[in-house]
Amino acid sequence: MKPLRFIILNLLVLCTLNSCFEDLDDNPATDQDIKDFVYRAMFDWYIYKDEMPQLQTNRAESSDYDSYLNSFSSPENLFESLIYERQTIDRFSAITDDYFALEQQLNGTSYHNGMEYGLFRFSSTDTDVYGYVRYILPSTDAENKGLVRGDIFHSVNGTQLTINNYRTLLGTNSYTIALGSYDDNGTPNDVTDDFISDINQQIQLTKVPYTENPVYDYDVFNIGGEQVGYLMYNGFTGDFNNQLNDVFGYFSSNGVQKLVLDLRYNPGGSVNSARLLGSMITGQFNGDAFSSLNYNDQKQNFNSTYNFTNSFNGTSINSLNLNKVYVIATGSSASASEMVINSLSSYIEVVHIGKNTVGKSQASSIIYDSPDYGRQNVNPTHTYALLPLIAITRNAEGLAVPNSGLVPDVEIGEKVNDLGSIGNQMEPLLAAALQVIENGGRQAALTSKGHEIIGDNHDLEPNSQIMIAD
């Protein structure tokens, strides 16, 4: 396995225009001004505008527009009133009062203590929630404090995690977790009587600005006489496209014949990075349509197609020319991760190992308060911006990812009390993929234990699972 690069930012990216904060202080926008921006932006760009009565005609041109805006207590409330079926369809559109922080996050930088974790409970009737460490980011507070994959924690700042409080307790920049020990009570195949016991060990964690290299792990295995590449890729971040391409160069130089692409923790990101990854896996479809972006009826001129390519930014793509790929994807795999699976399936065989994915085929872009909604000439009197769903991605056959997610060919989930080591051939999900490769079929003789996974740390981030229309 090759060493990975990572970047830690010690300073926040601040507004570089001195006049920016002066304008905010001296002549701040009114609530009404910001609400006006929110409404106009959603009227112009929202992919589901035809489903919302408030957006089917332009209320900004009506005589009661000011009264309409005044009926909402905040820009956020107005924004929420314009969202189509928040619980089932549009679970992802967002508004922010700090687009600088949003820009950092979408470039891969966010506040992080280095602990990537999932959350579970023993049944849907339990109120207590527990966290389990999925992996640790390098050179972070969590790594320095000795946390490792598989550690379990049950409380934060002395309070037991519950279904009602975990977002608040884990949402702060500094907190103390109490570690626990998993006890299966002698019934390894039944979780109903399992429990977590305290081990009297507490760890304080602090978040700092951090840029994650999404290329987390890669290796090459010899399976049945064939060279099998393995890549865990945890985010579609454009700044690391070169590192991703280098991995495929390594695969190519080692004669990789088959590939296991591990997207189990990947919440999404750049559409362009997804296209590049698809081009690296294949290579024989240069110029063909990988995926399309389709906008609302008033923005059809923005419809675009992302084609397979053999180069980017003057760099040749390292391609494997595969006609089959094995993808590990779970309920934490969203947007651009699903786009890769869906788009590749139009051209090659994709064997999905894991669980149902999130179910998100819509793309977003930052909408600023400017004449063309772009970053230039942005209104200097406030820092609000929108990240609404503005387009739907479809594969070359015109199919979008269903809202219910992509269904696995081989269903297997992680056991929170037996995660295994990332990149180890015996790690359960990787072992299942390698078993399918070696046996030449789709079935794996592994099953998951019945924990109810209720989410992960990305769910606490306001703009996770976003697919960005570059």
Compact description:
The chain is of the alpha+beta class and 470 residues long. It is built from twelve helices and 24 strands. The strands form six sheets. Strands 3, 4, 5, 6, 7, 8 and 24 form a seven-stranded antiparallel beta sheet that branches. Strands 10-11-12-17-18-23 form a six-stranded mixed beta sheet, with helices on both faces. Strands 14-13-22-19 form a four-stranded antiparallel beta sheet.
List the helices and strands and how they pair.
Elements: H1 18-26, H2 31-45, H3 53-56, H4 65-70, H5 75-81, E1 94-96, H6 99-106, E2 109-112, E3 115-121, E4 130-136, H7 141-144, E5 152-156, E6 159-160, H8 166-170, E7 174-183, E8 195-206, E9 208-211, E10 215-223, E11 226-233, H9 241-253, E12 258-262, H10 271-281, E13 289-294, E14 304-307, E15 311-312, E16 315-316, E17 324-329, H11 336-344, E18 349-354, E19 362-364, E20 367-368, E21 385-387, E22 389-394, E23 410-411, H12 428-439, E24 452-456
Parallel strand pairs: 11-12, 12-17, 17-18, 18-23
Antiparallel strand pairs: 1-21, 2-9, 3-4, 3-24, 4-5, 5-6, 5-7, 7-8, 10-11, 13-14, 13-22, 15-16, 19-22, 20-21
Helix pairs in contact: 2-5, 9-10, 10-11
